Amino acid sequence: MKSDSGLASWLQLTLTPGLGPSTIRQLLKKFGLPEQVLSRSRSELARMAPRATFDALDSTEVVEAVSRAREWAAQEGHAVVTLADEAYPKPLLEIADPPTLLYAHGRLELLGRPALAVVGSRNATAQGERNAEAFARTFSEAGLTIVSGLALGIDTAAHRGGLTGRGSTIAVLGTGIDVTYPARNAGLAHDISRTGLLLSEFPLETKAAAHNFPRRNRLISGLAQGCLVVEAALGSGSLITARSAAEQGREVFAIPGSIHSPLSKGCHALIKAGAKLVESADDVLSELSGRGICEPATPRGGRTTVTDPLLTQMGFDPIDVDSLCARSGLSADQVSSQLLRLELAGLVTALPGGLFQRLD
Amino acid sequence: MKSDSGLASWLQLTLTPGLGPSTIRQLLKKFGLPEQVLSRSRSELARMAPRATFDALDSTEVVEAVSRAREWAAQEGHAVVTLADEAYPKPLLEIADPPTLLYAHGRLELLGRPALAVVGSRNATAQGERNAEAFARTFSEAGLTIVSGLALGIDTAAHRGGLTGRGSTIAVLGTGIDVTYPARNAGLAHDISRTGLLLSEFPLETKAAAHNFPRRNRLISGLAQGCLVVEAALGSGSLITARSAAEQGREVFAIPGSIHSPLSKGCHALIKAGAKLVESADDVLSELSGRGICEPATPRGGRTTVTDPLLTQMGFDPIDVDSLCARSGLSADQVSSQLLRLELAGLVTALPGGLFQRLD
Predict the structure, then answer these.
(1) Which positions in chain A touch B131 (Cβ < 8 Å)?
(2) At what angle do helices B21-31 and B4-14 cross, to 10 degrees?
(3) What is the DSSP string of A177-222?
């Protein structure tokens, strides 16, 4: 994917303590590729960050960390994807703070597919997990890659649903890619590394630390074109992912639930703030296909589309209730009630002047 | 409330078969009060509707029906309120098709109060009925009169909740006001006639007929400043009421629920179409008090308002996360997560440029 010394330079920059993505982007902008950055004198570089930071570039710790990362990257199925690589996910280039590089384990081609983030509570209800898995399976069958965070609860269910379809799944880790967290998901992580993709921006061996997860969440939302929150308490990490998604211009979707369930309060807050209420996977697929992101939702047997007699009698021109009564032999109230049903199903729209029109 | 012969003329017009509210309004507009309409020659009137209709004005059936209605109106607690009466509810004057007169039994003064329609399924869940009653009680305690349709299920629970507070309740019937429908609600109707108000636009003795209920529903929404749907299946009458409310410029509110409950699908369809998602009675009261319709919601113990330390540290000027970290001693991630929580609770708003501001 790149010359070995090229990769070494990328790793050297990112593994040097004190050099964050934003400083590195400034360096790349000013001097070119990492090899060119590193060919500059340390005093020249020191105009962009404290001198001590650049002195650390050649420390034993950094040299050894680079060496370990190169060994890791050389193994079967492993890759380090940098900002300069063709495989670097395009959607991340649109976000405010794209990572300099990503450690990847699995099917790199998934980074080029349309994707949907599916996230939610670690302490989900059984029904919430069933919803997450069923929705994710439908999305994956429709060709969307499911992005989530390998946490217990909703994330786990979303990954499992994703793995069953052609869209598969990407797990973005808040730890080093060689650290399995949570331990209970070791089996799932293994499955994802074989038919999906594990991804992390953190150096190898980075242990789980609370402050890394919100940072990771911006990648979950950033990698996807939309973000579905299945169950979330107020103040939970899933809402941070949803906020990232909204800030990144992604569509936010949320599944409602009982007003008495603490795990629905986060979703309800999102809907109040403008997220789309979602009752079925088709709700999401229609929205995304309308924006050209994925294929249209499969028509289901339950839809009124073809079989509804009133819809057939309407034709495609605007029509009033009286004419519909005449055509259908129904009373005005029957027609009104059926029109309302069709309107709510998105098949008919009400026009000014008491007219109605079929939509599809 | 008006001269006896005046009332007789109003009744004579409305009790004549074939004369609907819209024709009657045209007659009133052209000739003045009903007494003046009736003083015109029948051939003069016949320019506005078929001659046979006006011939029926003096039929035995109409004369006897007027007489029975006058006897009914003379009884304690009974009234007939016409378009010309001071007591005629002002909100109904704004709707497309206000009834010419209303039969009323109970506390007429409730027609002058701010009101909220609370409607929903006849086959409600136990939780739905509990929600309806609890919400209605809170609204009524806040001074809102609960308007509903005396049906079983949600309507019944809403009326019961309304009766417990100072706002009380109005039941708008789809039958004659002297017909108890459904029979199982005879006791509730009796209670409402004593401390609330029964209302109908239909002539005495009008039996329950399917086509009268959608017509009645426009009055439920029209009498109120907002309409809350508690539980409703797709295609149900409650959605017709909600649509009337929207057409009449009333705010529509809906309570979400499980995506697997058929009784939540109507509410979800409304929220998708723009209705406000409601988790608590306070959600409705805040919205209505913001529009000057009722008193502000009572602050509850559970609110973060005063006790949240970060909120206190924010002050009331825009502030960035770094400054908040310095003030609070918290990490950037902790501050971000707390800000999100406060934002979702409506206590803080995010401003451009990474600034946040306290809202109350």
Answers:
(1) 259
(2) 130
(3) TTS-SSGGGHHHHHHHHHHSEEEE-SPTTPPP-TTHHHHHHHHHHH
ipTM of the complex: 0.78
User: Taking Cα atoms as reference points, which of B167, B172, B219 lies closest to residue B195?
Assistant: B167
| CA dist list (Å): A343 to A215, A337, A357, B205 | 42, 10, 9, 35
Shortest distance between the Cα of A194 and any Cα of chain B, in A, equals 33
List the end-to-end C-alpha distance of chain A, in Å, as a whole number.
48
pLDDT for residue B299: 46
User: Do A255 and B255 count as a contact with CB atoms less than 8 A apart?
Assistant: no
pLDDT the model gives residue A1: 47
What is the rounded CA–CA span in Å between residue A178 and residue B347? 41
List the 205-264 stretch of B: residues with Cβ below 8 A of A.
210-211, 214, 234-235, 237, 239-240, 243, 255-260, 264
Here the tokens at position B196 are: 């609330």
Asked if the model's pLDDT at residue A333 lies above 90, the reply is no
Which has the higher per-residue pLDDT, A352 or B174? B174
Give percent of chain B above pLDDT 90: 71
A137: its two tokens: 């399976």
**pLDDT, tens digit (0-9, with 9 covering 90-100), for A10-26:** 999 999 998 988 899 99
pLDDT digits (tens, 9 = 90+) for A181-197: 999 999 999 999 999 99
Secondary structure E strands in chain B? 78-82, 101-106, 115-119, 145-148, 169-172, 197-200, 226-229, 251-254, 276-277, 319-320, 348-351, 355-358
**Structure-model confidence comparison of residues A342 and B108, the more confident one:** B108
Of B235, B239, B271, the CB nearest to A277: B271
CB-CB neighbors (< 8 A) of B268 in chain A: 256, 277, 279
Q: Which of B260, B276, B344 sits opposite A269 (nearest CB)?
A: B344
Chain B within 8 Å of A268 (Cβ-Cβ)? yes
Could you tell me the pTM of the whole model?
Answer: 0.80
DSSP-derived secondary structure letter, B300:
P
The residue type of A271 is I
**Cα(B340)–Cα(B330) distance, rounded to whole angstroms?**
15
Selecting from A268, A331, A341 the residue whose C-beta is nearest the C-beta of B211 gives A331
Cross-chain CB nearest to B268 (options A237, A272, A279): A279
